[in-house]
Amino acid sequence: MSRLRLGRQVAGRIVSALIMLCLLSVVVYAGVDALPGDPVTSRLGGTVSPDQIAEAQARLGLDRPLPERYSDWATGLLGGDLGTSATGAPVAGVVGDRLRNTAQLVAVTLALLVPSSLLLGVALGKRAGTRSDFLGTTLLLLTSAIPEFVMTGLLVLILAVGLGWLPAVSLVPAGDSPLAHPTALVLPVLALLLAGLAYSSRIIRAATATAERSPHVEFLRLNGISERVVVRQAILPAVLPTAVQVWLVSAAVLLGGTVLVEKILAYPGVGPVLVDAVRTGDLPVVQALAMIFGATTLAAMMLADLTGSVLDPRRSRS
Amino acid sequence: MRLHQRSATVPVTIVAGASAIGVLAIALLGPLLAPHSPTEPVAAPYTGPGPGHLLGSDSLGRDVLSRTLRGGFALLSASTLACLASTAAGATVGILAALAGGRHHWWEGLLMRPLDAIAAIPPIITLLLVLSAFPTRSGVIIAGAVTGTPLAARVALASTKPLLARSHVEIARARGESPSWIALHELAPIAGAPIIADTGLRFIAAFYLVTAAGFLGIDLGGTDWGTLLVEALPGVALQPLAMIVPLLLIATLAISVNLLVDRLVQGSTRLLG
Question: Does the predicted interface ipTM exceed a cut of 0.90?
């Protein structure tokens, strides 16, 4: 692929991601407004007078017209201002450290997911059609069917309650990095890893099985090239472009999974903050985090698309 | 090797089908069979299994068996409603995008892009977003429907688009049939199989989301299996059954429906291919 075409493709991808980001902000802001209810009425309705409701709405700025509120909010976001929480504190202050802890959780999980899913996927793919492959893929299908929070519950039951190896909650002293408390990380990382492993290994397995059947690999085998060289020279280059995309998509899915896992284990990420904000109807906090999660997902998808077109040997030859 | 896989398929389908029906039966008939009220204390807190309370009691001494039996109905009905709503909305938008996009290309983008924006938000975040403005069971159903629609629309679009070039559709168009007639009589019967297979996936996704809502405890003080799970967590060392039973029910339904859908999807792609 010529450098010019690649540059044009990157630019096109970035432009469409920016358009998606605008759409995302409309969905997050106006979409919530379109719901048949608002945070104030649904929580205070019936318990206080209409005047008090109107006053609470005015305090949150809900009495102003939607386009005006949206443009204020969106302009703030562009300038890096995440808005003001219903408690009056800036959202950035409420979620700052917590976001870092969540990012660390996702990073540690990904660092383990990449090698383990590659090993497992390639190992199963090379045995495609055999009894051990059938057993492995069935087990993966079973784990992928268990939601992360149920998986977390199971792990707590087995590792913390049954065997007593780990604490049932991920206690990290305020202000400390979770990386300094490895035992607090084991359960959340394991729960997210098991949920993500099933998806990525299944796809890497399929890509390996396809590469195994290619004439190129058969040619190397017939020439008596050692298995290690075949894997390194022929199978991995064919599998990696798919694998990189799968890992990026997994990163986005993992991010969503952190909310529940963190909440159950009381891990100091954004999950517990988010759930509390939902309970109290603190819409600005939820909207800001929805934008951050959505934008991260869009970025991961954009990178996945781009790596697909850059790394895929078939496409770059054309 | 192929033979081995095919012979394994039949028992898997039967076992998965039987487990799914078993869990459904517990959810539907459970409220009628529950021996106690879900809120009245029947024993000391965290009592183990015994006569009168077969699965023991929870942190407030309430009967775990009765709470479990009553916890499935609301959960499954909310999941089913969300799943049907997302499939209906998704199929409408997807088929519309295919038909309109066949005339003017930009129609497809106009209809599908906003859905892509929704799909970029992790479903659990959409759920929380909806619940912070609208914390009711209808809010949970709306969130389930909204998160499922983009994927349902994608499947409907992908399975309808190739059909537009088929001769029977072109003949109908030449006859002067209206687009809605074509959608209903020429497209829906063929595109129906993958859309129905996809409905199974939408059900699983909606089921996860509704369970998660109960699990997060945002939802409404019911006895959803998700809610039971989270209530059992603090006392799990004293009364593990209170956690194991809802956990097994959720996992069994999720796994068996997943296996069934897996077979169904394989079957439907074979039909189309």
Answer: no
